[in-house]
Design brief:
The chain has about 800 residues and is α+β, with helices and mostly antiparallel strands. About 40% of the residues lie in helices and about 25% in strands.
């Protein structure tokens, strides 16, 4: 039934080829009990591994029932071991974290037995080897003799025609060894038993054939009268007078049960493996939590990049296109009142209202020096006197000042912060000229700068104007300093207006400073009769307004240069003098408000290109007394559409700036979309390989398990399926944990999660959870099959040797 024809086995190590055995020719029949002996290194164990299909051979041919096996691939050899071979190993090769029952059950499940057949069969075999009382004992707690009995039980379970045993008594005491040999002898009546042993005397009374090896070759092949040999020993179990002769080649072969590991049994083994080693389970659970959260974060970033691009882009009209900003006006065009504010605040998803809408797009210079000085310009309302020692003295309106600080800042209202906010020092502002400074903890402002700025008196100038001659500044006293919260930092940094300082001021203070960016950005129409001249900051106009305390209130000084363009026949001084009692209309126009004021003209022969006006009149022109436009800030921009619908139902016009930003062209959009996908794929790829290598290290503890399964006849599909089932069990537990945490953060928030993480979670919509489940599920399947494919690149024996 089994024949070797000049078979050789070679090993190559570091380029050196050695022979395991050479030119071996043997033939075996059912009913034989064969002992292979020889000194260490003679090749007997190698021969046994080739016979059992655990190892390959390089020369000659091995036949099984006349069929050559030299062309067998790994899957063919697995099928061969599964159908024909039962192995008993010297080192037992049991699954130590399995019980006796589970070890025997394993080989039956791999053979394709159904669940209904397994239990009765396992119980019967355990009884046959005398281990009933150890049925539920883990094999790691058994003695050597008991472990060997489990190995024999496992070999018997498949009912294969061939059983091979490598030094099955090598680690046993004399009594246990004798019992094992007797048990094997009793099995050889209708099977082929091949045993490798150093202790020939121990097996001599029971064998039918002795094969001796020396230096990789057959030195002796001696057959015995099996019946006289066995009957000579009264201790031989399983024999009786009148026993039939052993079966020969023509006997009907009883192969092992033919079937495949079912899906249900695959899941049973995978689930068992998942929980059998608690340390491994916890490590893999952590890895899968990392994989799932990493995938969620990558996908959230991918979805958030679209909003991020809009946040950082500038519109033609609005510069702050933040995704959580909605601009509101009233449908009837009237100004907002307290009742309107309350109705808006009552709507879900409204975080806070910014009544001074313009300030969300404005930045300021917080300083005690004129802006013109800061930019090194030589014109303006200050003087610089240089002393002989090189020091400078700065005089503003004739008063010497000291430049103590200069920082760029944005401004928000008190409504946007908590009243019980913890401060680094000082207090909250309670007057229009007071401000709280919010800064980044650990940022560029060190303790010296904080000391310098705290309790200092300076003033704000609009950073929007390129020229300093608007002459408008607001006195500011710093009364408190605090750190940004993580959520505030996240909200501010997503806009293009982010600076290291944010001023928190009272509503009166915000109303006051809102005039600064207006005067720097509004176009004013200077109108006399039907003639109109645009007045505004460069580059909109060559003519702009400046404050001048020398100008009488209610009067504007129009230089000759301007008057000649505005008023016909006014080229000379006499003409100017004649028109000084005429009135001029100044109309300021912007996206925020539209106001008309009338002034008396005062002429001058200067060739100046500026219209002079008293500071009080200038402030009055640009100080909005009513709010016609405000901003509603959203708690989550994911629900902007629903929030806008509620606001419009309440009678407000809405403008969602994130959709109106000056976005990219079609080509730019396509490129940015492709870039987002590439970034996502790269992130997921890196994440996958990091998780794969970590999983590979953790699963190294299971390599012996899968090598043993292969030796027992488990094919690649069975191993990979079991591994996949194990990983899927852990994956679903990890996914459930992550999903519970993410949903809690999304629905209820969390005090332990940073604002950035919470924002990422809010980008995940319900349907995205399904997408992410499928993605991570695919990655888990890929992990399992990649790992199992690595195991099957080697023969079963080589894979086992590497692990032990």
């Amino acid at each position: 039934m089994l024949k070797l024809d000049r078979v050789s086995k070679f090993y190559s190590t570091n380029g050196v080829v050695t022979a395991g055995f050479s030119k071996v020719s043997l033939e075996f029949d059912l009913g034989e009990f064969v002992a292979i002996t020889g000194e260490s290194g003679s090749g007997k164990s190698t021969l046994l591994n080739v016979i059992s299909g655990l190892d390959s051979y390089e020369e000659g041919e091995m036949y099984i029932f006349g069929q050559p096996t030299s062309g067998y691939g790994s899957s063919d050899m697995e099928e061969y071991r599964k159908r024909y071979i039962g192995n008993i190993f010297q080192t037992f090769n049991l699954i130590n974290h399995y019980t006796v029952y589970e070890n025997v059950e394993l080989v039956l499940l791999l053979a394709g037995y159904g669940a209904s057949e397994v239990k009765e069969r396992v119980e019967d075999i355990i009884h046959k080897v005398g281990l009933d009382e150890y049925r539920n004992t883990k094999t790691s707690k058994l003695s050597g003799g008991q472990k060997q009995r489990v190995a024999i039980a496992r070999a018997l379970a498949k009912e294969t025609p061939i059983i091979v045993a490598d030094e099955p008594t090598g680690n046993l005491d004399v009594a246990s060894a004798s019992d094992i040999i007797k048990l094997l002898a009793s099995l050889s009546k209708d099977k082929l038993i091949i045993i490798v042993t150093h202790n020939y005397e121990q097996v001599e009374p029971y064998i039918t054939r002795k094969i001796s090896m020396h230096d990789g070759r057959i030195a002796e092949d001696k057959r015995f009268d099996s019946y006289s040999g066995r009957s000579a020993s009264k201790e031989s179990p399983g024999e009786s007078e009148g026993a039939e002769p052993p079966l020969g080649d023509k006997a009907i072969l009883k192969e092992a049960h033919q079937g495949k590991l079912s899906g249900g049994n695959t899941f049973r083994l995978g689930a068992r493996n998942a929980f059998s080693l608690p340390a491994k389970f916890l490590l893999l659970l952590f890895v899968f939590v990392f994989l799932i959260t990493g995938t969620f974060a990558s996908y959230s970033n991918y979805k958030g990049m679209k909003n991020g691009l809009s946040n950082s882009s500038w519109g033609y009209v609005f510069s702050n296109t933040s995704s959580d900003r909605i601009i509101l006006t009233k449908e009837d065009g009237s100004a907002f009142n307290d009742s309107d504010y309350e109705r808006i605040r009552a709507i879900d998803n409204i975080d806070f209202l910014e009544k001074n809408d313009l300030l969300m797009e404005s930045t300021f210079d917080l300083t005690n020096a004129p802006k013109s000085l800061l930019y090194g310009e030589e014109e303006g309302f200050y003087d610089v006197i240089y002393a002989e020692d090189g020091t400078e003295s700065v005089f503003v309106d004739g008063e010497e000042i000291e430049i103590t600080f200069w920082e760029r800042a944005m401004a928000i209202g008190m409504e946007s912060i908590s009243e019980d906010r913890e401060l680094v020092r000082g207090r909250l502002p309670n007057a229009e000229d007071e401000a709280l400074l919010l800064i980044e903890e650990g940022g560029f402002l060190d303790d010296n700068r904080l000391d310098e700025m705290f309790d200092a008196i300076g003033y704000l100038q609009s950073n929007n104007a390129e020229f300093p001659s608007d002459g408008m500044k607001v006195p500011i006293k710093v009364v408190g300093i605090g750190y940004y919260s993580e959520e505030e930092k996240d909200n501010y940094m997503k806009t293009s207006l982010w600076y290291d300082i944010t001023l928190v001021m009272t509503q009166e203070g915000l109303d006051r400073i809102e005039a600064l960016p207006l005067v720097a950005t509004c176009i004013t129409e200077l109108k006399v009769g039907s003639n109109i001249l645009s007045v505004g900051p460069p580059p909109w106009s060559d003519v702009w307004l400046v404050s001048d305390t020398n100008v009488e209130k209610g009067t504007v000084v129009v230089p000759q240069y301007i008057a000649s363009d505005l008023i016909p026949n006014s080229a000379g001084a006499m003409d100017l003098f004649d028109i000084t009692k005429m009135s001029v209309e100044l109309r300021t126009r912007s996206k925020y408000f539209d106001r008309k004021e009338r002034f008396t003209i005062s002429g001058t022969e200067d060739s100046d290109t500026r219209v002079h006006i008293h500071p009080d009149d200038l402030w009055a022109m640009y100080m909005p007394s009513e709010k016609y436009q405000i901003t509603a800030t959203l708690e989550s921009d994911l629900y902007n559409r629903e929030t806008r619908d509620l606001l419009e139902e309440a009678g407000f016009n809405t403008l969602y700036l994130n959709e109106t930003a000056d976005k990219q062209s079609a080509i730019e959009k396509a490129l940015m979309g492709a870039m987002r996908i590439i970034v996502l794929v790269l992130l997921l790829g890196v994440l996958f390989f990091v998780v794969y290598f970590i999983t590979k290290l953790i699963m190294k503890s299971q390599n012996v398990y899968y090598s043993t399964v292969r030796m027992l006849g488990g094919n690649e599909k069975a191993c990979s399926g079991t591994l996949l089932a194990e990983l899927l069990v852990i994956f679903h537990i990890a996914f459930a944990i992550c999903l519970a945490v993410l949903l809690k953060v999304r629905l209820l928030g969390s005090v332990i999660m940073p604002a950035y993480f919470i924002r990422l979670v809010r980008y995940i919509e319900p349907w995205d959870y399904v997408i992410l489940y499928v993605v991570v599920l695919g990655m888990t399947i890929l992990l399992a099959y990649r790992y199992s494919s690595q195991m099957f690149k080697k023969t079963a024996m080589n894979a086992y040797r590497e692990e032990v």
